[in-house]
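We both want to read discrete structure tokens more fluently, so let's practise on a single case. Would you write everything just below, so we can both look at the same thing?
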Amino acid sequence: MLFLNNLLNTVVLAVGLLTAELALDSRTVSFESISIPASLASQGYTAEVAQQRITAAALSVVRDARTLAETHHVQSSNSDDPVELIARYLGVQPLLQVAQQAAGGLEYRIAADIVVERSALVLRMRASRYDGRVTSARVSRPPEEIEQLLADGGFMLMRLIDPHVACSAILRRSARAGTPDWDRTSRCVEASLPAAGPEDRTWLYNLLGVTRVLRHDRAGALTAFRSALEIEANFSPSLLNIGILLAGANRHEDAIRAYRTVFRHRTYGDSLQTYAATHTMMAVSLERLGRPQEALEQLRQAIRAVPDYLPPYLMLLERLPEGSREALAVRRAMAQIQTRTAQEGQADIFTENLLGMMPLSALLN
């Protein structure tokens, strides 16, 4: 898929959120207990080591997903110091609803144990949410695959506390390997939806819509995006993606109306990244309608929203007079972004607004 390869090679993200209030993501995860068989402990796999391995694997999942914008912590019940699971995630994350903010955020307490069942090692995990809801999961491996079992535990932990992150990681890992696994990502979303809280369901439905577009199922995608909007009518990533579907059907006036809705109401899911992608896609529709000057202004607004967001620079450079002062400034900015990104290893794809990164030709094929 050429468009995706180009996407992976060129897209750079740097996220800013609208306000300090919206930027709050306080999902706190505390390990209450981990029970380990004596046979494993004698091999050095103590409860502390198991927790470290699971935490490291969860960190890897989050790094691959690149979907959260703030910090999660994993804290042991016998430790006063939290272990930072991730310092800063690039991308957009499911921000807390007002009631959840008032309740002090999302808190999860984890109890896990490893047992031997029918000559296999089984890792069982139980997550108790702040609201009293309990979810659980289990995974098994042969005894010689203890390291892989603990790695599976990291993914399982993220499925329990933030399923959108886990499912996004599947898509991003497979995309970076050159074979985007839309089907497995969809199965992850569909399996997660029944137990997910409302703060996750909007993001899960949006991700499901993304996978359906990438499989050229526009009707299914529209249903998924509308399902997100039934939960939160102003959920901006799905509004953006619906606009892109309309633009892909050559309904550019309708697409622009959808894009403008993104800016009309502030709600969780909003971010400057979403705004930048919306301005960029609005520029495409305005240009298709023969309004090139308005399109240029939308590209400039995208750059003002997120100065490290590369696509509007690329589009703007193609439309400016060669050698003009603005064109030279755009070239300098692009060079700085590409150099800085290479040094910092920033994320090159994000799954919430993935459609916002695609050329319309990719959506029309």
